[in-house]
Amino acid sequence: MKAVCLLSGGLDSATATAVARREGFDCYTLAFDYGQRHRVELAAAERVARSLGSVEHVVMPVNLRKFGNSALTADIAVPKGREQAEMASQIPVTYVPARNTVFLSIALAWAEVLESSDIFIGVNALDYSGYPDCRPEYIAAFETMANLATKAGVEGRTRVRIHTPLMALDKAGIIQLGRTLGVDYSLTHSCYDPDELGRPCGACDSCLLRAKGFAEAGLPDPALTK
Questions:
Q1: DSSP summary character for residue 131
Q2: Tens-place pLDDT, residues 95-139
Q3: Rounded CA gap, 152 and 116, in Å?
Q4: Could you tell me which of 70, 65, 71 has the C-alpha nearest to residue 34?
Q5: What CATH number does residue 126 fall under?
Q6: Do 162 and 129 meet the contact criterion of CB atoms below 8 Å apart?
Q7: Nearest to 37, CA basis, from 96, 106, 103
């Protein structure tokens, strides 16, 4: 069985890919050069893909910087030092407009070419309140659309499934799951605003949530100790 796995290089997507591998899928990993402010996550995605035995790893160029309007694709300051309640109170400026819709659509195209029915994405509970395209109702709606939009779906030869194995987990739960699956988190990268050497800032929302997850899992973050 083949599966297309969205792989950003972060711990969520690495864990979701590892789940796909555990479930017996041959993983075709897909990362995006979408005009993000740093290249570190693309290097991390390639490392993780090799580590998890990806059959093929594709980096797809989709320049969302042309539209901007996000701290990840424009010259907008990345928020730092926020409490979790503040993170959850509104859609953050790090939201990239329609990003998951764009990414899932391209994953759907590759899956159809591969004659695959399965796409894995690492969205999870911590992103519900902040990012509208990480909610379970969004994923369900996209899956419905996918089965209306593809030749294979219309002909009844397959039914596309969008797998979200981390949906009900917090960061600690994701990390604990990944440990059982042999994910090497030292290869991953989560920071929204790394320095020129690719080192995490330690203060953006993603860094803080990652640190909280490792602390609650009772584990050191190997990306900081390597």
A1: -
A2: 999 999 999 999 999 999 999 999 999 998 665 557 889 999 999
A3: 10
A4: 65
A5: 3.40.50.620
A6: no
A7: 96
Tokens of 22: 């555990």
Sequential DSSP letters for 142-192: HHHHHHHHSHHHHTTS---EEE-TTTT--HHHHHHHHHHTT--GGG----S
Q: Exposed, middle or buried, 12 (CB in 10 Å: 0-12/13-18/19+)?
A: buried
Tell me how far apart the alpha carbons of residues 45 and 183 are, in angstroms, rounded to a whole number. 13
Q: How confident is the model at residue 15 (pLDDT cuts 50, 70, 90)?
A: very high
Strand order in the sheet with 2-6: 56-61, 26-33, 2-6, 118-120, 161-163
Q: What pLDDT was estimated at residue 129?
A: 55
The domain total for the chain is 1
Distance between CA atoms of 82 and 85, rounded to whole angstroms?
8
Phi, psi of 224 (to 5 degrees): -95, -15
Q: Which domain holds residue 11?
A: 2-225
Q: Are 191 and 148 in contact (CB under 8 A)?
A: no
Half-sphere exposure of 114 (CA within 13 A, CB side): 24
- Percent above pLDDT 90 for the chain: 84
CA distance 3 to 10: 19
Angle at 50 between CA 23 and CA 99, to 5 degrees: 75
**With contact defined as beta carbons under 8 Å apart, do 118 and 164 qualify?**
no
